[in-house]
Amino acid sequence: MSNETPSLEDLKEELIAAYPKKVAKKRAVQIVTNDITEDGSVPEIKANTRTAPGIITQRGCCYAGCKGVVLGPTRDIVNLVHGPIGCSFYAWLTRRNQTLPPTPESENFINYMFSTDMQDNEIIFGGEKKLAEAIREVYENFHPRAIGVFSTCPVGLIGDDVHTVSRQMSEELGINIFGFSCEGYKGVSQSAGHHIANNQLFKHVIGRGTEAPEGKFRVNLLGEYNIGGDAFVLEDIFERCGITLCSTFSGNSSIDQFERSHLADLNLVMCHRSINYIAEMIELKYGTPWFKVNFIGPDGSAKALRKIAEYFDDDELRANVERVIAEEMIAVTEARKRFTPRLQGKKAMLFVGGSRAHHYQDLFTQVGMETISAGYEFAHRDDYEGRDVLHSIKVDADSRNIEELTITADPEEYRPEYTDLKKAREEAGMEFSDYKGMMPEMKKGSLIIDDISEHETEILLNKVKPDIFCAGIKEKYGVQKFGIPCKQLHSYDYGGPYAGFSGAVNFFEDIDRMVNASVWKHLKAPWAKGA
Amino acid sequence: MKSTALNKPKAPSYASSCNACRQCTPLGACLAFKGIEGAVPFLHGSQGCATYIRRYLISHFREPIDIASSSFSEDSAIFGGERNFRRGIGNLTQQYHPKIIGVATTCLSETIGDDVPSFLRQIDKDVSETENQPKLIHVSTPSYTGSHIDGFHEATRAVVKTFATRSPVNNRLALFPGMISTEDIRSLKQDIKAFELHGILAPDYSDTMDGPAWESYHRMSPGGTPLSEMTLFGGVKAAIDFTHVVADKQLAGAYLQDTFGVTRHRLPAPIGISATDDWLDLLSSLSGIKIPLSYEEQRGRLIDAIVDGHKYLSKVPVALFGEADHVLGLCSFISSLGLDIQLVATGGKTKGFEEAVHQNMQGDSSPEILNGSDFRDIESAVDRLYPRLLVGNSKGYTLARRKNLPLLRTGFPIHDRFGGQRLLHFGYAGAQRLLDELINTIITHRQSESDVGWTYI
After folding, report:
1. Which residues in chain A have Cβ-Cβ distances shorter than 8 Å to B87?
2. DSSP characters for B45-94?
């Protein structure tokens, strides 16, 4: 395998060659060669636009983003899917979120799937009655504190009103029941579902709590979904630093965390794409500032912890953070020494998620690997180019259909002292509501591809063989047919955790195992080698 | 016919589903299309369905599976999906040059009433013969009716309907085995060969869904029922539908019989001794060739092993769950081994399932039967019936864990064990494997539960 950086720019034409003119034109602006000017700006990339029909995309649907991603990891809200059986079945634990109930008796519905199992009858005569009955059954069977009702494609079409049924049943049963209009055809990808989930959580859950957990430094961690136990690693780090987690959205979370999240002192945003709306809305209504963090990779983790300490401006916290970083870095430094000689110079490609394709690049850099091409599955322009471009993103028909909540400061609960604190920190140079995006951190000349299709993936791999390709389970086995290992960054190949410092060590080990596996030597049978 | 014990408490009945035991109709159709040479499945509806179904099938098969979609927007949901459909077919064709596009509908396009057959007619009219237009096959698969099994059979029948023409009698045997493992497909093909017969097995995803590493790039996974063979369907020597319970109106062999007067046999898939005996008998009579010695030897070893293993299995109370035809095959084999079948459950509501269970019981068990059930029903039955062993797919794992029961994984889906896609269930060899696994599952559990730590057991 060549160690020279191939000319990726030439590839662009090949990637889109097979498409009809119109599709090729559309794809041409979603594939860009990275460039960083002196003032730090990057080229514009088209993102968050609808995938053309007939293109085999990595993307899922609105329902998947709402139910599967944002609400899925919470253990004590029953997620009841209103629709035919498949939608609920396919979202049943498939993201492999982990949760750790405080006691063995505590509620945990993560291992369950619930569906109204819609039949012809409901399609013709309406499914509201069956939905109400299903809610009653769930209540009688499990007595949960809350039930979320998720709409699938037919629900919107037949005109079932999940919100009214939820409200009526909430009155009947005396628990919090709320609906999501997250029909699969809405928006262009799961991203629409994230937004809808954010909105409904904000309307129906956040702000209902009255007591924040005790602690001097209380934070919410937004956009951390506890894949492979990442949340457990971060919880441990926070605890050792003396930082109190008020809530996590939504890895290893519970509804009471969501309810009290408006009482935290600071919001940390991990997955910018899926959860920035909640961070923004909490700030507008309650005054809590937010900034972006990346707890994937030791550098990002250390940077985030130090920034938290600066935000609180507390010497004890600073000392704790430095102590924890120093303790953690021993194993990381040792692992880097061990793995760098084995991985140095290897090339990676990442096509995954709405933040993951960015976050994991730091881990590769740590061991001397280079990311030569990357892109998101469902991100928007700001995730590529940074939030500075937000004002210039045109709202198209697909985005317009997703409700934008109008939030104003709460007359009683808005906390102006946090606005003052933010202002003071800003004056000292600290950045808030910030995300610089993926492209400014990638090398000039790397190829950025938004919403890469199956076909483009195949052409890309056939022309440029990276040493590792990162995507999800749908891509994994196709990529590996090319003799290239594929790391799943949605489920971590059922490994992990990869977050924080100890997670990085796991990651280096796993990448080494994959890249340097002996199986690749056997691809060709010995008797066929001469041929 | 034996009756189920009336004194057993009745299962509660629910409107909703909790931990389903079946998947949706288009999933089965997509898998069936994957077993046809040069075919790409295409879902007319939301792109999320294609993604979920790909994701789900891949977790079992550990192979790439491409499924395209017409990627509905809100506009298409309101004004109809013809424009998206046509663009989708066009885009897919230009990228992959498929020979066939298997179009299955989703609940979205079905609910708005898109008339896909008329879309296809229009495309046929618009496309000149010189253009390299793939053959389009349509199957209606609203996910609010039936299960993945219905989608599978309907899609298979749609493929056969598309290709079969009235043609002179040939020496082929048409095999329609249903949704089975890739190794079971290979085993049927091997059987056919052993009797010097020529088979057309459809759908055949033994290569497309369980293929080798590639030495060079393939635009589409090689394999599938060959197109050249499928034109012979109308004149086959005989057609065989392997099923216990699927209605003739859904079956491809029945279609050939009704339309072309093809001799058709309807028999259970060869799971267990009796079903394999019947299958080999049929092959022997169709070919005029005596059952080969190698099969007799396999059978002999199997019987010998059953005798040896009887002490582990006799009267062990067991619960079976899964897709109807699969579970009925297990019923017949497992009851013949002397286990006490306490529960037989299937997810899709299946006509004639109860009768079929009784017909397949050997020995004197009178199991509780759950038809159209989910794992909430199965768990509550397990609580009443106290089986000591579960046999079924991976979805039974959380139940097995909660009840501390061993689970032998068979059927579909298997995503918490390696190699689930290529488990052999068919023939004497498959029965042998199942027998060994049954016994070893029980032994493993006994060993891990034992305070003593037996080394001989």
Report:
1. 52-54
2. S-HHHHHHHHHHHHHHH-S----EE----HHHHHH-SHHHHHHHHHHHHH
